[in-house]
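Order emerges. As here.
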Amino acid sequence: MSPRRNRPSGPRRADDHEDERESGFGGGAREEWQGEEWVVRPIAGSASTKFYRCPGCDQEIPPGVAHVVAWREYQGLDDRRHWHRACWQAKDRRTRKVQRSRNAPRY
């Protein structure tokens, strides 16, 4: 009996890992929204260690909650935002500006 192969058997494409090198992050899918290309990357709950504020609903994403990180493809990683998965999927159905209450934290 021959040993089991754990490598893919198909031909390897050169551009498979090109996106990882450009952005520093792997596993990002590309989506178009508001006429721009966005890189969208899912984050597992175990990988989330900080509080984030979702720009879709203006609520906190606590540590340990799975969510999505999205950034414009050509703006860089400094502009990435952490969204709830449902908020990212419903982004086209939301109003443009989310109104905060007077005593809401501003971060």
The CA atoms of residues 18 and 35 lie 23 Å apart. The two ends are 60 Å apart (CA to CA). The first helix runs from residue 18 to 23. Helices lie at 18-23, 85-89.
